Each structure stands twice: as structure tokens, then as C-alpha cells.
Amino acid sequence: MDYEQLPKWFGGGVAPDSVSSFQFKTAELNQVTPRQRAIYRALMCLVMSNGARDFHSNQSMTAALMRANEVDDHHLFPLAFLKESDRRNPKAEFDNVLNRTLIDAKTNKSIGANSPAIYLAPIDEMQGRSQVDAILASHGIEGQTRDALRAAEYRSFLENRRAWFEARIAQATSLPGQPSVEAA
Q: Facing residues of 181 across strands?
């Protein structure tokens, strides 16, 4: 059993089979929703471990805030906005981990059903665009991903955000000589 192998592995021995043979098909990231609690929570932990900060307050998202129910699991492209702009696609396509992050509950309410191009503008005015870009980067949203978010280009945003998650999954799960992420 794996749990019997853990002390040996922690002491520098061979990793248990379930660890050394771990694979995650990153092409399936767009199918991970909150209903898949374990993998979804693990991916949100990657966001938190990146130092995620609230869009308005710039406050770090912490375990203490989570326990106090002061953090919301937010759609970066709000569902109502996506449904209105792309009525052909099912809700499931919009409700995936690539389109979500953790922010303050008050911030989430202020965003409402607005496009990112609309809800980021007053935040830019209040904090300055470079500060907001740094906050977005704390959520793994930088470069082309950030540009796609700001332009409200959903498909491009998803493709670029997937790359960020792929890199973090590889970093978090890699074992020497063992590829841990299966590219699709």
C-alpha cells in the first residue's frame, strides 16, 4: 500500500507507484468545474500559492479570509456576460477552472455581470494600470492572458490561462526523471 511507502519516500527512498505514475491530462482543464472538488480545489490552491490578491483592495487571499467566508470563487468572465455574448455554448463551457479565481466577496458583487473590459476600467483608474496588472499576475493572469482578459476575448483568454495552469501543475507535481503532466 502507498501509505506504507510514504515514510521511505520522505526519507529519500523510491516514490510510491501512485506518485511516480501520476499523470494529468492538461487538455481536460477546461472541463474541471467546482463539482470536481478535489482537482478544482487543488487548482485554486495553485492560484493562492501564487500570492493571489484582491482586485480592489490588493489584500492577499489567505486561508484565514477563506475560513471567514470573505473570499468568493469568481468567474473572471461573469456567467451572465458570457451567456449574453455567446448564447450557443452551454453553461458548462463557461463554468470551468480556467475562468475562475479567488477575490474578496465585496469585489465580486461590484463586478456583477460586466465584461472584464468594463469592470477593470474603474479599478485601473483607482489603482493605476500597472498596479492592477501586478494584481492580475498574482492570479496567473499576465502577458497574453491579461491582454485577452482586458479585451474580453474569452477563447484567447482560456488558451493562455491553460498554459499557466499547465506550468504550475508541472512545477507542483514533477519528480526527477518523471514527467508528471501528459500533454494532449
A: 24
Instruction: Give dist(CA 145, CA 165) in Å, integer.
Output: 12
pTM for this prediction: 0.79
Residue labelled with grid coordinates 472538488 = 37
Q: Cβ(14)–Cβ(8) under 8 Å?
A: yes
CA dihedral 106, 112, 117, 121 (to 10 degrees): -40
Beta bridge partners of 24: 181
- Summarize pLDDT for 9-46 with one digit per residue, the tens: 888 888 787 777 767 677 777 777 777 778 888 888 89
> For residue 43, how many other CB atoms are within 10 A of its CB?
19
Helix H or strand E segment including 101: strand 100-104
Residue corresponding to grid cell 479567488? 102
